[in-house]
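In this section we walk through a basic example: taking a raw amino acid sequence and producing a predicted 3D structure, encoded as discrete structure tokens. The instruction is simple. Fold the sequence below.
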Amino acid sequence: YIDASMRASFDLQAPGLPTTLLIDSEGRELGRLVGPAEWDTPEMIAFLKNHLTSN
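The resulting token sequence is shown next.
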């Protein structure tokens, strides 16, 4: 997705890149991470599995 107007960044209050938002099926924000992420750490994997299975 390319947001040439930068409107999404403003609307989502994302102060910089990268910003990751975890959104549930109802459109609610479950989590936010501003900055780079280590997606393959045991903690991150457990966090994502927990949120993916509970929603």
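Looking at the output, two observations stand out. The chain has one domain: 7-54. Strands lie at 19-23, 29-34. In the next section we compare this with other chains.
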